[in-house]
Design a protein that fits this description.
mainly alpha; Serine Threonine Protein Phosphatase 5, Tetratricopeptide repeat; 7 helices; about 0% strand; about 120 residues
Amino acid sequence: MAVWLRWVMGVAPNVRSYTIVINGFCKIKMVDEAINLFNEMHSRKIIPNAVSYTALIDGSCNVGRLEDALEIFKDLLVKGYNLNVYTYTLIIKGFCKTGMFDEALTVLSKWKTLVAF
């Protein structure tokens, strides 16, 4: 994939170019390909940013893979990334789509304690 990115985009792959392609895969519901590319980033020592993770969370939720989205979300939290409202909204939306309203409210409550309104 890195060779492909270099050929298509004309630059050496970096976190931004990888994230663009990951997001594209997720938008067309090719989440497995996005995850493979995400793993390739790690193997090439390119550190994903919060946007990279958020794209995977969004893609996973959109194809009904809430468990995958939650694992990615937990990884973000463990690594200490500063999450924004969009990331939290995706997880809350994922819980709501699957009828897990109590879990959605729990995430909302935790988020409210982290953000000053």
